[in-house]
Design a protein that fits this description.
The chain has one domain: Arc Repressor Mutant, subunit A (Orthogonal Bundle). 62% of the residues lie in helices and 6% in strands. It has 7 helices and 2 strands; from the N terminus they run αααααββαα. The N and C termini lie far apart (45 Å).
Length: 160
């Protein structure tokens, strides 16, 4: 009989960054569902709505780049948000084929209503970390994802 604990046996898996990131995504999704599921939008849809709110008038491909999503996924999300009446697209002014993306009044209202839930989600995600480690955690995530934000200034690089 093996005298090792489950955790000891599974240590090689538990020490894999990819496994931990996947588990973090599962935790994040569960918290999002618990706090914001009743609003009827997904975390990806929220990210697109928030991006359009912060950067109104971007063309669809620019929204994708700003939010960190691929163009196909962004197109599908924007299409769904249009059906929900939260976004609208207008003929873009910077390119012949581009369409600028804007929040509707309903989209503005939805963001206002979901904001307290989003704030609770963010707090719950890091509540297990001591205060002094929270900024470092965000800095490390920013470095791994190459996000240029208030926690980390950097240059973009491709992962392809």
């Amino acid at each position: 009989m093996n005298s090792k604990t489950h955790s000891e046996i599974m240590r090689p898996v538990y020490n894999m960054p990819a496994h931990l990131v996947r588990r973090l995504q599962q935790v994040t999704q569960a918290i999002f569902e618990a706090e914001a599921g009743s609003f009827g939008i997904t975390s990806a849809q929220f990210a697109i709505l928030q991006t359009v709110s912060l950067l109104p008038g971007l063309e669809q491909r620019e929204v994708a780049a700003a939010a960190g999503y691929d163009s196909v996924t962004t197109s599908q999300i924007i299409r769904k948000l249009e059906v929900l009446g939260l976004l609208r697209r207008n003929k873009g002014s910077r390119s012949r084929r581009g369409q600028s993306v804007h929040l509707t009044e309903e989209g503005v209202q939805a963001l206002t209503e979901i904001r307290p839930a989003i704030d609770r989600i963010q707090a719950r995600l890091i509540e297990r970390l001591p205060e002094e480690k929270r900024t470092a955690f965000l800095q490390l995530l920013s470095e791994i994802t190459d996000v240029d934000n208030s926690h980390r200034a950097g240059t973009s690089r491709s992962y392809k």
